[in-house]
Amino acid sequence: MRIEANPFAYEFALKDTALVLIDMQRDFIEPGGFGETLGNDVSLLEAIVPATKAALAAWRKAGGLVVHTREAHKADLSDCPPAKRSRGNPSLRIGDEGPMGRILVAGEPGNQIIDALAPVEGEIVIDKPGKGMFYATDLHELLQQRGITHLLFGGVTTEVCVQTSMREANDRGYDGLLLEDCTESYFPAFKAATLDMIRAQGAIVGWTAPSAALLAALNHAA
Ligand code: TIU
Predict the structure, then answer these.
(1) Which residues form the pocket of ligand 1, taking CB atoms under 6 Å from any ligand atom?
(2) pTM tops 0.90
(3) Dihedrals φ, ψ of 108, to 5°?
């Protein structure tokens, strides 16, 4: 299959490719979670839900592998570096009790993936303590076992967990493409800059494309 992408076309085979949705969690998208405690206007992020839902539905229909990640810490915070918890001046710190349960703690209501994009049986769900999806997880092994070499990305936030995960993937030899309207930042200028820096220098980190280009490729193949 071929996606009309930037800076040039992205070629992939469905069986070698996974759709990875990064941290589409209430903690980042809804008021009262980790994103808001850091001082961000979380309302910006909701805008990508319809396009992301459509891309996920089309990918599932085509039979592609789906990976969901969650930024999540153990209840005892043993996997949360003190530097991460103590940084800055958030209104609530990681592990504190908030309106959606303990901030950024696995299993809490606020830590769940939003209902619109909830994982279904057979999809991989990875809890990650860091920004990147490979740090302190077994995701690389799970993808290698399945012969995955290509990764399509969506999720939040563009310049933090999405970009870190794409860079980690690039260094592990994956070809990554970021779906432009399925990712968002609390800072629009950072999203724009991240898309530019990913695809610069002949796709130094990877590709970007609108989700319509993925849907067109899937329709063409069907
Ligand atoms: N703060 C921010 O922009 N992002 C994060 O802390 N985590 C993710 O990007 N998931």
Answers:
(1) 23, 28, 35, 38, 71, 131, 156-157, 160-161, 186
(2) yes
(3) -75, 155
